[in-house]
Amino acid sequence: MAVFYFMLKKREQFGSQFGLIMAAVGSAVGLGNIWRFSYIAGVNGGGAFLVVYLLCVLLIGLPVLIAELTIGRRSGLSTVSAFRELAPGTFWWVAGAIGVLASTAIACYYPAVAGWSLGYVFESIANWSGMTADTAAAFGEFSAGPKSYIFAAAALALAMAILIRGVAAGIEKWSKMLMPALGGIMVILVIRSVTLPGAGAGVAFLLMPDFSEFTVGGFLDALGHSFYSLSLGMGVMITYASYMKKSANLAAATTSIIAMDTGIALLAGLAIFPAVFAMGLRPDEGPGLVFVTLPMAFTQMPFGQIFCTLFFLLVFIAALTSLISILQVPLAMLEDRFGISRRKGLAIIAAVAVCFGAPSVMAFGVLKDFSIMGLDYFTFLDRFANNILLPISALLGILFIIFSFGVAASRKEFLEGAGGGGRFMSALYPIAVRTVAPAAIVVIILRAAGVF
Prior knowledge:
Blueprint: H1 17-28, H2 31-43, H3 47-75, H4 79-86, H5 93-126, H6 128-133, H7 135-144, H8 146-163, H9 167-194, H10 200-207, H11 216-228, H12 236-241, H13 250-278, H14 293-299, H15 304-338, H16 342-362, H17 377-405, H18 407-415, H19 423-448
């Protein structure tokens, strides 16, 4: 069996099960769980969307997650090399290559969003009156101005500084610190939000499903987000699982990732919607909910400046942990496939991220009139990666499990080290991975293509 890598003997591993879970959850719990979940739940009726989303996570997200984790741990290699190792001489490596391309594309615009959240931490401390006088105008000015460049570069540099220390001393160590910090800040914000006068309407909006006005579009949004929120299709879970020990309990890790990912999304909703309703604002403001509507809400509550600072610190931590995992995918590929050192690999990735990522930051300023296929550069990268590359990569990964690796072999890998746990998930896995998951991903692809 041909193996296309050079550094297997020196390959690192996560030091503990907890470290793996925190790193994987850190990847999954990004802006998708706080920014994207909140605004699409808001425009799709709250509780009804939440119920459908949870079902999609269990029926679609879970089997795809298991498939990617088993590929990574069985091979002990990053995305492209994993498929080459498990199916030498075949075309399946394309699935891994598309995942790397998706991660690289996301890494080119994600620092911009991470930079916005980092910048808003500082803005809420130093320029509170300026950022809240007219929140829409303030965000437009910030995203188009030179500050956004500085903070985007700072976010990318911080992620690189963590990655250069390696898997155990870098990713695992910082994930163990950042994720508990994220959870602590989230709890503080939820307590503040649900105790505001009039917050009960926001809690009911999120937790009391009303399907009377739920649409097919809402179902499709829930389906797509269940896939997006778990970092599937971008090679992250394959890469992280490749650093797992064979003795690690993959079933327990999978359960923890799913539970914590959806739990953080729920907590984000409980932190946001009660405050929005308590201040008499609309929950269906769309993408501007976090950066425009919420600062307006914070101005109306006691100690709003403090809670605004905490909130955007929370958003930045989520963005940073996701950015770290996204960058690790092409970095691991360069290490395994080409024997490039971590330091040189990071230099290459940094150069690519700056060259192709700078226009995404400028898309709201000096390049606002530049477009590709009618879209600004930032939106083009986002849609190209998330609507096209991610679902195609995930679909190929599922087909690889079905037709090459084998569903039974994947299930066996999933149960290895489980100690009797995970039997229920593994019993549903063959059915879901052969039918529900691929059908759902095809629906996502068709929707992205504008078929419906």
